[in-house]
Amino acid sequence: MSDLYHSIVGLPRSGKTTFLAALWHLIDAGEVNTKLVLDKLVGDNQYLNEIVEAWRKCEEVPRTSMAAEANIAIHVHEPISGRKVVLGFPDLSGESFQSQFVTRGCRNAYVEGYDRPGGIMLFVNADRGQDGLTILDLAPILAGADEAEQAGELREWSHELVPEQVRLVDLLQFTQRPPFDRRRRRLAVAVSAWDVVVDQAVAPDEWLARELPFLHQFLSANPETFEFRAYGVSAQGGDVTGERRTELLKRTPSERIRCVGPEAEVHDLTAPLVWLNGDG
């Protein structure tokens, strides 16, 4: 049985670094039961210790910059099946994914990671304004376009003007053509900051269809390439910059974590990763 390699990807500020800090504490501390067990860490142990320490103190986890990119891989195994898994974080900052969108190129190591057997965990953040504009939203802007052009106020194009959903779909479309090895993959969409979702009765897949319909439609329309599920993830358990921080500090760190989705235990972030293994 060959090892699996799961790629953890997402745009900047999508929650990957906070997830990494919470996951490392979860599988290292042994405070709650998890479906995956730690074997070893390969990468920048000092950086990992820094973000985990901030996470344990309910402080904002330092954002990773592309200049200080930490190349980290966590080796774990699934006790029930004995299957060994490598969790790869090809770009914690997410900035190289932005660069990929603009330059239409990526690093060889990134391609090599996708060529290994395994799935994808794609992060989106619930705690940010979504960009689902309709034609009704655009009508006033288009109506004033002539006036802006006459006044010389046209804004130069920037990748930051492109809706997040479009960039995410483009990121996934990259994996469907050379030099990537095109095949059917499991993909888990992790909706981070799930604690800010007002309607906690809504399922993560329903949230995805409502808030990021273009991404949801793309995944649904490409079953030959992606088999996907959505999970709601709250790696911190709440807003650590607000009044809840004091309450969160009183709790056992692992029990602050929440994971919502198919076959997920409430505090176990490894549930979507186990599903990526291909069982069930």
From TrEMBL:
Source organism's superkingdom?
Answer: Bacteria
- Please identify the protein, giving its name as recorded: Double-GTPase 1 domain-containing protein
The major lineage groups are: Bacteria, Pseudomonadati, Pseudomonadota, Alphaproteobacteria, Hyphomicrobiales
Q: Which Pfam families match?
A: DO-GTPase1
Domain Double-GTPase: from-to ranges: 8-276
